Amino acid sequence: MGDIVLMHFSTVDYVIFVLLLVASAGIGLYYAFSGGRQRTTQEFLLADRSMSCLPVSLSLLATFQSAVAILGAPSEIYTHGTQYWFLGCSYFLGLLIPAHIFIPVFYRLHLSSTYQYLELRFSKSVRICGTVTFIFQMVIYMGVVLYAPALALNAVTGFDLWGAVLAMGLVCTLYTALGGLKAVIWTDVFQTIVMFAGQLAVIIVGTHQAGGIAEVWKKAQNGSRISGLDLNPDPLERHTFWTLGVGGVFLMLALYGVNQAQVQRYLSSRTEKVAIMSCYAVFPCQQIVLTMGCLMGLVMYARYGEESPLDKGYVKSNDQMVLYFVMDVLQDLPGLPGLFVACLFSGALSTISSAFNSLATVTMEDLIKPHVAPMTEARATLLSKMLALGYGLVCLAMAYIASLMGSVLQAALSIFGMVGGPLLGLFCLGMFFPWANSTGALVGLVSGLVMAFWIGIGSFLSRMSASAPPVMNGTIIPDVGNMTTALMTTLITSKPRPSGVQALYSLSYMWYSAHNSATVVVVGLLVSFLTGKVKNMNGIIMLY
């Protein structure tokens, strides 16, 4: 930890943190014992299709605004400048397309699980493959989302690591298993407010300490952290306007168009119109969240300049750096560090509670109901609750596995992106291409997943080997402070453009979703042409 003491929490901070957990659990218990008391699967999994616009839109926002994002965006801006802000351009199309293409299809078919669509359109086997892929994706994601913030918190403040993980995991499992989707959506609303409050507190206090917003902007400009529009069309560049503005659209579609956790929110809306409105309402909120992340990164830069806590050895990773900054800025204001930690854990709670609920839904609707003799509503509901509980415990187990993975955390997060793309491709294949058949869909999905993992793991490994110390004539260059840095810089600047497979590995991660969904569609169409036409063209197959 370098040469500084851990920054400690005051009693007030712990009280605020505990209040967050108590309030979340309280909301869950309230919905467990009021209204329809979660007696039917319709209420437990779909909130009786009775939700209004505001809670649904805030819940949509909170679901993928995880703690990883709250810690990730500011450190991205601090390190690389404001180019990342152009991701906001992709939100517009990324929410418009789901609102007018995906939501109407799913809503009018009265589905509970998005994967029912795949059976109606293709066949049962396609549906099961889609479901299993989704379960795999979410289970891995849950563990990381729970573990990553607790790890950063532990490193910076000495907050008990497994205490935090268990407290969150258990509270979340409790209110999800007892209160159903209603509880999940209303706790999301509460947690979104806490998230805004926590980030706002840091930005206001930090800006004040840095000498006002004009001063922050000036420092960022002098440090060339304010990026202009980079119109470089090269897909290998990490962040340009095209990778963020166009590649980001596919990322958004995979999240807001076909992901069960989000589609379940749309389906819980009162009417189709409310579902579409809530999708629109996410747009300004997303922009605010993004802007707040950017501002926080700039305030961080104004405070530390080029001398980041990371370089000085106070912290070991980027996400810890943001927490260190927060503790540094707020240390004399008891209660505010607690508020930010509550904000961080709100991010994690809202993400994993949605994961539990959507996993319980797909397991119930796609894997159990079609293969088991019809059961009574009461039994089905009890089983759904047990599933939510079971996934909660699986999540804790995954958090433990995540703790053993070390530097592979980043890879686990990109698995989320890797799997989202092929699933998006599968749904697009069904909705936009009437001549695609189920053989094409299966082969397409598999080839999309193979492609995704090949690129994902390949790029991860090639990055790992690139970050190893440079070797000259078989001897490893010792790290002699700036000399190596200078040498490394010259090595890096004269790097030739990668070609062949290496170019594929260097593809910007923002293009993964687009590339993998395109693979599914292209392969799916080719195989469909080779294996003959679609057997069962029902009226519902295409868009309407």
TrEMBL record:
Q: Which Gene3D superfamilies match?
A: Sodium/glucose cotransporter
- Where is the chain membrane-spanning? 14-33, 53-72, 84-107, 128-149, 161-181, 193-214, 239-258, 279-302, 339-362, 382-402, 408-433, 440-461, 509-532
Q: Which GO terms describe its biological process?
A: inorganic ion transmembrane transport; pantothenate transmembrane transport; sodium ion transport
A single cellular component GO annotation = apical plasma membrane
**Pfam families with a match to the protein in the record:** SSF
Catalytic activity reads: iodide(out) + 2 Na(+)(out) = iodide(in) + 2 Na(+)(in); (R)-lipoate(out) + 2 Na(+)(out) = (R)-lipoate(in) + 2 Na(+)(in); biotin(out) + 2 Na(+)(out) = biotin(in) + 2 Na(+)(in); (R)-pantothenate(out) + 2 Na(+)(out) = (R)-pantothenate(in) + 2 Na(+)(in)
Give the way it sits in the membrane.
Multi-pass membrane protein
Which purpose does this protein serve, as stated in its record?
Answer: Sodium-dependent multivitamin transporter that mediates the electrogenic transport of pantothenate, biotin, lipoate and iodide. Functions as a Na(+)-coupled substrate symporter where the stoichiometry of Na(+):substrate is 2:1, creating an electrochemical Na(+) gradient used as driving force for substrate uptake. Required for biotin and pantothenate uptake in the intestine across the brush border membrane. Plays a role in the maintenance of intestinal mucosa integrity, by providing the gut mucosa with biotin.
Record-stated family: Belongs to the sodium:solute symporter (SSF) (TC 2.A.21) family.
Protein name according to UniProt: Sodium-dependent multivitamin transporter
In its UniProt entry, the species of origin is given as: Cyprinus carpio
